[in-house]
Amino acid sequence: MPLASSHIVPFIGGIVLSVVGYAPLAVALHLVRSGRVTPRMGLGGLAVAVSFGLLTVIEGIAWLLIPQSFLALSIGLALGYVVVLSYLAFIALRWH
Fold first, then answer.
1. Which of 5, 57, 48 is nearest to 26 (CA)?
2. Cystine design at 73: which of 14, 34, 58, 95 (Cβ 3.0–4.6 Å)?
């Protein structure tokens, strides 16, 4: 199935929303790297839980409001996930 022009906006929106959804992880990493917070499992777990909650709410709202473009949005979210995860891994590895 080719990507129709009506699916471009949800696809790009998915990429942007995944960056927003993974912001709690980036904030936690930034706080630890800057030395303002000591690395703890609780902080990481909280960041993952908030991120998961945001992304679940985003997917649920998309399912209700734009079911015809849900797949395009989900693909954008997955692509954004890979980009953000790669960025966070780069930042974490550069730290040491």
1. 48
2. 14
What span, in angstroms and rounded, lies between the C-alpha atoms of 58 and 35? 31
Give Cβ neighbours of residue 20 (< 8 Å, ≥ 6 apart). 54, 58
Rounded Cα distance between 81 and 74, Å, is 10
Alpha-carbon distance of 87 to 57, in angstroms, equals: 23
Structure tokens at 66: 């734009």
Query: Where are the domains positioned within the chain?
Result: 14-95
Each residue's pLDDT tens digit, 17-76: 999 999 999 999 899 988 899 988 999 999 999 999 999 999 999 999 999 999 999 999
63's tokens: 């399912």
Task: Specify the pTM.
Answer: 0.81
In angstroms, the CA 74 to CA 93 distance is: 28
Query: Which structure tokens are listed for 35?
Result: 């030395």
Residue tagged 């930034």 (tokens): 30
